[in-house]
Specification:
Two copies of one chain form a homodimer.
Chain A: H1 20-28, E1 31-35, E2 40-42, E3 50-64, E4 70-76, E5 81-82, E6 96-109, H2 113-119, H3 121-147, H4 150-165, E7 166-169, E8 172-175, H5 181-188, H6 192-204, E9 208-211, E10 214-217, H7 220-227
Antiparallel strand pairs in A: 1-6, 2-6, 3-4, 3-5, 3-6, 7-8, 8-10, 9-10
Chain A binds a DNA duplex through helix 6.
DNA sequence: CGGATACTTGAGCAATATCAACCGACGTGG
DNA sequence: CCACGTCGGTTGATATTGCTCAAGTATCCG
C-alpha cells in the first residue's frame, strides 16, 4: 500500500473501465513524483526506466538537435500518459520533459508495463489511441511546417494552445501557464524575433494582449481565420 | 477458407509469434486487393472501413491541405501495417495511400480489429511499436523542418529513402520506385524547382545521377555528411 | 538596487518561393 | 512507326519571407 488513493486516477482515460481492485494493484506499484517549475521529469537519450501519468501541472516536451537547437514537441497536461517510451518499443527517452509549472505525476518502472497491460486490458487500446492522436497532431504539424508561413503557424499554435490550456479571463482567453516568445518560436519552427514582431503587430490591432511569459487571446476568431489562410488585413 | 496461404504473413512483424491456427483464422477474414500504379488504396476523409497489410509494392501516403497542397506523409513498403485508422481511434482515414508501383495488400474490415487483437495478443504490442516508430519519425521530420534548410532536408530524405528502398546498381544506390522531383519536394516541404536545382548541382559534382522519376545516389556518404550539416563544398 | 531574463525593434541580407519560359522523354493513337 | 500531346524536368529572373546581427528596453527576483 503506497498511500495513494484510487480517486487520483479512476477518472483518467488510461484507466477507464478499471475496477477498484485493479486500480489499487496499479497504484501499489506507483510512486508519486513532484517537479518544481523548470526541472525535468525525464531527459532525452537517458534510459527510459519509468513512464508517467501527469496528475497536475504542465510539461514542455522538447527535443534537442545535434547542433543544439531546441524544438518543442508538445505540451502535455493533466491526465496524459507521458514518457511511455517502453510501450513504443524504445529504451531511451526520445525527448526531454520539463515542468512548465510545478507539477505532480505518478511514475511506474518501465519494467512494469507488461504487467499493467495484463492488469488493465483497456490500457493497450488507450495507449494506441493516445499514440494515434499524437501521430495525427505530428502529421498536422508537418503539413503546417511544409506549407504555411510563419504568421499562420503562430496563429494556429496559439489557437490550439487556447483550446487545450486556455482559461477565460476578463480580456479574452489566457494561455494558462508561463510561455515565452522563445517557446512559441520553438513550437512553430521560427525565431524568437519573428514571434515577437508578429505578436506586437497583433497586439496593435487588439487581437492579443502580451506580457512577460503571458499571452491573452482577445479575438480568437481573428486568429482562427488567419490560421485558415485569410490574410491579416485590418478590420 | 479464402485460399490465402499462411506463408504470406507468417514472417511479418505484425504476426510474429502467432501459431498456424491463429494465422489461418486471421487469413480467413482477409481479402487480398491489388492496386495498379497510380490508383489509391484508401482516401483521406473517407470512412475507414478497412485496414491493410502491404504485401508487395510501395505506397505513397499523402495528406492534402484545405487549399490544395499535397504533403507526403511517408512511403510504406512490404510488411507494413497501413490504414490502421481504427486502431488509432479514428473513423476516417487521415491521409490518402496511392500505389507508387503496382501493389498487393491484404485487407480486413475495420470492425474485425478487436477480434484480431483477441486472436493475436502480440498484435497490440506490434501496432504500438509501429505507431511509436512512426511517431518518432514524424517528430524527427518536425525537428528537421523547423531547424534545417532545404538542401539538408533533401539530402536526409534521399539518404533515408536509399536505406529503406534502395537497390544497389552499377552506379550507386537506386531509389527503387518511380519518384518525381515533385514527390521529393512534397516530402521535404519545398518546391519542385528547388529540388530540381539541388539535384542538378549534386549531379554536376557526381554525387547523384538523375533521370525521369529516377534517382541514383552515387556518393551516399557525401549526402550523409551534408545532412549532418557539413557544408556542400566540393571535394 | 543590481543582475538576469524576457522582450522589442530596426537594418541588412541570405535562402527560398514565385513567375516564366523552355526542353526533352515517353507513350498513345492514328 | 511516326507525330504530337502530356508530363516531368531544367533554368533564369525576380520577389519576398524570414533569419541574423545588433542594440536597446522592460520586468522580475533576490
Amino acid at each position: 500500500m503506497s498511500g495513494l488513493d484510487r480517486s487520483l486516477i479512476a477518472a483518467l482515460p488510461p484507466f477507464a473501465g478499471a475496477g477498484p481492485a485493479q486500480l489499487d494493484a496499479v497504484l501499489d506499484e506507483a510512486r508519486s513524483v513532484y517537479r518544481a517549475r523548470g526541472s525535468s521529469l525525464y531527459e532525452q537519450d537517458k534510459p527510459a526506466d519509468s513512464f508517467f501519468v501527469l496528475l497536475h501541472g504542465r510539461l514542455r516536451v522538447t527535443r534537442l538537435t545535434p547542433d543544439g537547437r531546441q524544438v518543442v514537441v508538445r505540451f502535455a497536461g493533466p491526465g496524459e500518459l507521458v514518457g511511455v517510451a517502453v510501450a513504443l518499443g524504445r529504451d531511451t527517452y526520445p525527448a526531454t520533459a520539463a515542468a512548465a509549472v510545478d507539477s505532480v505525476a505518478l511514475a511506474w518502472p518501465s519494467a512494469r508495463w507488461p504487467q499493467m497491460l495484463g492488469l488493465l486490458p483497456a490500457l493497450a487500446g488507450a495507449a494506441l489511441q493516445a499514440a494515434g492522436a499524437r501521430l495525427h497532431d505530428a502529421h498536422s504539424r508537418i503539413v503546417e511546417l511544409s506549407t504555411e508561413q510563419v504568421e499562420r503557424r503562430v496563429a494556429n499554435a496559439l489557437v490550439r494552445l487556447s483550446e487545450t490550456t486556455g482559461r477565460r479571463v476578463e480580456q479574452g482567453i489566457l494561455i494558462d501557464f508561463p510561455i515565452s516568445r522563445q517557446d512559441v518560436a520553438e513550437a512553430t519552427g521560427t525565431t524568437l524575433h519573428n514571434v515577437s514582431r508578429i505578436l506586437s503587430a497583433w497586439e496593435e490591432r487588439g487581437w492579443v494582449k502580451g506580457g512577460r511569459q503571458r499571452i491573452v487571446i482577445c479575438e480568437p476568431h481573428r486568429l482562427m481565420s488567419l490560421g485558415e489562410g485569410y490574410p491579416a488585413n485590418r478590420g
